[in-house]
């Protein structure tokens, strides 16, 4: 259910008695507060009576006042009618308030129909003054093809404005009907009518609706028809900015570049909404259960609650006579209040999680109870319990499935038979039992924010995997990525921080490696299924003498106390033969077949030894900042490699990384460290377990292809909501989104209160970096360190 935009009462004080706060009404509908809903509807009836009387009899309120009411958007036919339909569906149609409304509306519709002329319009009403439902609008909403083609031939229908100032073209673009949009544009052009009309409530033209909905073909059609792509709505946003904000980057790419210096208002001044923050810390003696209904993956279409008598998805054909049902979610042993969700579910639940703190020694379980509202109160009709850790023994000690989605049966209270199912996604956060000390003077996320992004400084330069990601297409000298030598080189070239990936081996050791599988072994085995010795052996055997030299000028794996001088690396035929041998060993692996190479291998790059997190912390000077990406395995990586989607348990994975940081960071160290991850659950755990290091969420923000299909990484909008809810310090965006709409940087920083960073191959182009600096980006992650460092130096 979607409601019209909420305006402040102060705009038109004389109509304040008819004010309907649709946002608050939406909340009451969601919570099932029927009495409050009736009160609001009763308030609406008097305004509607005045409105209808004018439409039918041209009596009642003055024309000036009526126009104010129409512009103000207090009478929202669609929203109120949906509420009434919802109440009827849930068994409340006998209430006098909905009855009054429906009777009033029915009488108006009958009189309206009796006064329609052969063209479907009222006699004596101009098209621009009438705010009655129009036959063409109704036909489009019902998607009645024959009626749409017939009614679209009349110019009065084409130019008719609803009470919100919407034309038939607005309605067609909202529905995403390319055929209707094409038909209407053709007829508007034939009659010489303007198609690019803004509505009253938001100032949106049809182009805005198409952009927000990600309708690529419709946006392209409207732009070709001459829609003004630089127009701003009442809040100062452009259609392009909405498209990018919602994650439709391909749609945003259809628009021309806009000189943002000439724009005012917009994302920086727009409200980002109130964020309900999660707990700030998981304390000793408790565990936190985080659950959301449905799936967190865009490629998974599931019904959150599916019962024989009701569903989380409204289906009037199947569930037309249901009573008022609700789902109650609680956790055994938790002091947190249970959550109650009305069925059908009105809103997307993925960023509105259920959070329960329970004792550490309690069995982690969620209880789902379905109830029906009656005059005597709620009556339980069914329930089910999910034992969240019951299947952990199936995967082995300290292991868990990468599929965090679970479905449990709901049993009917009377018959004890299965009445349906509930599907949800969950995470259990357990406390980190040690104090992780941050650099002196940077104890809170707020202090970190100021330190990382001071207003007077240029962006921080972060070396991506050191001196850059290894790629065959690069023409410059490349040192093996994620290695100590690469990190030292990046610092010398001008990077303030170095970014690297951290994974955990089977014997719980933190190592620096990017790829999911270790192709160097000749197999598709994941890193988390190897021991540390096996991981390091794959590095050693790349040297023709089994003893690779680091960029520090010494052999890293000599026995302590050895007086033997390390042998130099041969660059002759033996070296070339060894490189061919390594390539032959990897050629049958999935990762090598897909890319045709493997990073940091002999024969392609200046190969250096694989590094552990311990080595990085102890060998790098502390003035080099560390951006530590916790690279937890993702489901699509296991699927692509054709291996079982099972990995190390999330809490254990994070704790190993934190333990290593704690043990090998010198007391009093002032080294700056950032913790980041693409995996939302990892970000949540990092935020709940420690406060010494700032946490950043890395997201593609809708960039195609979106391989992980993660809903919380689908757009700038959801990324900001996620980061704010879980008290994160910042977000690292794929730079494409912010290049398309630079003013979104202001939204992230000023309205989200977050540090804004970017990554991507385009960050290696000086002109692209200059644009981001102008937009206010705080951190640039790049591969071409010297080139970008020189660019930033000039700008400073």
Mean pLDDT: 80
**Name of the CATH superfamily of the largest domain:** Phosphatidylinositol (PI) phosphodiesterase
H/I helix tally: 28
| Helix vs. strand class | alpha/beta
In the CATH hierarchy, the third-tier topology of the largest domain is known as TIM Barrel
Proportion of residues in helical segments: 25-40%
Radius of gyration: 30 Å
Roughly how many Å apart are the termini? 49 Å
Shape: globular
What is the domain total for the residues?
A: 4
Strand content: 15-25%
Number of strands: 21
Keywords: ANK repeat, Hydrolase, Repeat
GO molecular function, one term: glycerophosphocholine phosphodiesterase activity
Protein name: Glycerophosphoryl diester phosphodiesterase family-domain-containing protein
Region (Disordered): 547-571
Structure, explained:
34% of the residues lie in helices and 16% in strands. Strands 1, 2, 3, 4, 5, 6, 7, 9 and 10 form a nine-stranded antiparallel beta sheet that branches. An eight-stranded parallel barrel has the order 11-12-15-17-18-19-20-21, surrounded by seven helices. The protein is globular, with a radius of gyration of 30 Å. The chain starts with 21 loop residues before the first helix and ends with a helix. The chain has 796 residues and is α/β, with parallel strands linked by helices. The longest helix has 24 residues, at 34-57. The chain is built from 28 helices and 21 strands. It folds into four domains: 1-114, no CATH class; 130-258, Alpha Horseshoe (Serine Threonine Protein Phosphatase 5, Tetratricopeptide repeat), CATH 1.25.40.20; 286-429, Immunoglobulin-like, CATH 2.60.40.150; 445-555 and 566-795, TIM Barrel. Mean pLDDT is 80; it is low at 1-19, 54-75, 93-102, 107-131, 319-323 and 544-572.
